[in-house]
């Protein structure tokens, strides 16, 4: 997920040449990366800065010098972040771990756009699909979190023996309304954690207190919920589960009676922060990496407890192999 932090504005009229513009953006970006980047300690910043300035000494446009930002992301091994200049994006040339494993069935479903799906798939098992959620402003975040919560509470009136949380189509956005909407499935306490070399231990924690999710950015209040924290929860993941989707999957590992089913997630388990340098330029940067409920750092992806390769059927859930496995697991928990 990403947030934008406004940096001091420098008028473009002050940047007289393309070289000046590239070097201003380069200096500013490197300054932030040195302080914030997850892998900043692995880079020879002095040597790299000198090299990149020499390579951009004769550029005629900012876009022509954009390769330096690709170089920065490569040095940081950051495949999650990206630099934006006008309508052009520069990012690492490194491969995202499981991006190539997204199957045609999943791709076809993704193009239909994000949609929350809540339904009983058997008389006693609930199903909730949480898609991409990109909302950032407080009002929208609160509204979506409560919409997810309301969907769960409505299904809970049917007294299900368990619930399936489907994150296979969740490629990211803002993790906080996703997790906040699951309030009824958690006890109070920590529900998400991350590691960063720039923050003290504990500062990356997200937790529920009473009716609210408390984060460094939001306090998201859930209007009405009931404690179903002991309910069996099966979480479906796959190679299209990415970024905030992976954060939500990791958060669910903080509760008991939970299992991950499916395939390895995409591999964007870092937390991004956003920085605006000019009205026409800014970047996202990996600044932290997820931990699971056992304190394990998730450097590349989230692995399922029960692997089910393929067999996805988003239209007929009764035919979906991952859903069928989840149903069997939930039934076993109720024997």
From TrEMBL:
Residues 98-309 form the Tail specific protease domain. It comes from the Bacteria. SUPFAM superfamilies: ClpP/crotonase (SSF52096). One of its GO terms (biological process) is proteolysis. One of its GO terms (molecular function) is serine-type peptidase activity. InterPro entries: ClpP/crotonase-like_dom_sf, Tail-specific_protease. SMART domains: TSPc (SM00245). It holds the Pfam family Peptidase_S41. This is S41 family peptidase. It comes from Lacibacter sediminis.
């Amino acid at each position: 997920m990403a947030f934008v932090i406004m940096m001091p504005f420098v008028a473009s009229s002050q940047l007289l040449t393309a070289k000046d513009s590239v070097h201003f953006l380069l200096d500013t970006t490197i300054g932030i990366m040195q302080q914030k980047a997850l892998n900043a300690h692995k880079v020879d910043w002095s040597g790299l800065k000198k090299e990149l300035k020499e390579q951009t000494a004769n550029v005629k446009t900012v876009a022509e010098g954009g390769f330096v930002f690709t170089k920065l992301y490569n040095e940081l091994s950051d495949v999650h972040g990206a630099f934006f200049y006008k309508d052009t994006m520069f990012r690492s040339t490194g491969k995202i771990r499981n991006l190539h494993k997204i199957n045609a069935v999943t791709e076809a479903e993704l193009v239909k756009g994000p949609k929350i799906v809540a339904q009983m798939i058997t008389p006693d098992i609930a199903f909730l699909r949480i898609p991409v959620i990109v909302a950032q402003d407080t009002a929208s975040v609160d509204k979506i979190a409560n919409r997810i919560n309301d969907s769960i509470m409505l299904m809970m009136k049917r007294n299900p023996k368990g619930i399936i949380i489907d994150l296979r189509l969740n490629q990211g956005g803002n993790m906080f309304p996703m997790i906040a909407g699951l309030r009824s499935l958690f006890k109070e306490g920590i529900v998400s954690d991350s590691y960063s070399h720039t923050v003290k231990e504990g500062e990356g924690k997200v937790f529920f207190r009473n009716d609210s999710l408390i984060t460094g950015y939001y306090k998201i209040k859930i209007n009405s919920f009931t404690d179903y924290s002991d309910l069996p929860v099966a979480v479906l993941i796959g190679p299209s589960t990415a970024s905030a989707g992976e954060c939500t999957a990791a958060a669910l590992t903080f509760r008991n009676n939970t299992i991950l089913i499916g395939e390895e997630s995409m591999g964007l388990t870092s937390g991004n922060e956003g920085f605006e340098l000019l009205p026409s330029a800014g970047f996202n940067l990996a600044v932290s990496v997820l931990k699971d409920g056992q304190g394990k750092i998730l450097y590349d992806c989230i692995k399922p407890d029960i692997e089910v390769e393929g067999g996805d059927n988003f239209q007929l859930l009764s035919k979906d192999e991952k859903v069928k496995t989840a149903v069997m697991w939930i039934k076993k928990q109720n024997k």
